[in-house]
Design goal:
Helix content: 55-70%
Distance between the termini: 45 Å
Largest sheet: none
Number of strands: 0
Oligomer: single chain
Structural class: mainly alpha
Shape: elongated
């Protein structure tokens, strides 16, 4: 997010109205609801973490230990356990849906 000068984008009348409430301060203008982006969508980190977490889950189900995964991915054992637990919930539902179809 970058700063832009209000007088460069808003009519002078609107700038004067805003100055009645905020004078010489920074003002954040939030996005419209339809333009909101969730955490990690813009940078792509959300999808990267999703891929990484699925990989961790699959390696664990293939026999990798929690300690091995923690060392490989530079995460705590507690984080690995959490990822595996979430993976069980996500991927077991996915498997059930696949079997039903």
């Amino acid at each position: 997010m970058k700063y832009i000068k209000a007088q460069d984008v808003l009519p002078e009348k609107i700038v004067k109205i805003i100055q009645e409430y905020v004078d010489g301060e920074y003002l954040y203008v939030p996005r419209k609801i339809e333009n909101l982006k969730h955490w990690g969508e813009k940078s792509g980190i959300k999808s990267s973490l999703k891929v990484r977490n699925r990989e961790i889950y699959e390696k664990h189900t293939a026999g990798a230990t929690i300690n091995e995964l923690a060392q490989k991915y530079y995460l705590s054992e507690k984080s690995i356990i959490k990822i595996i637990s979430q993976g069980k919930q996500i991927y077991s539902k996915s498997l059930q849906n696949h079997l039903i179809d």
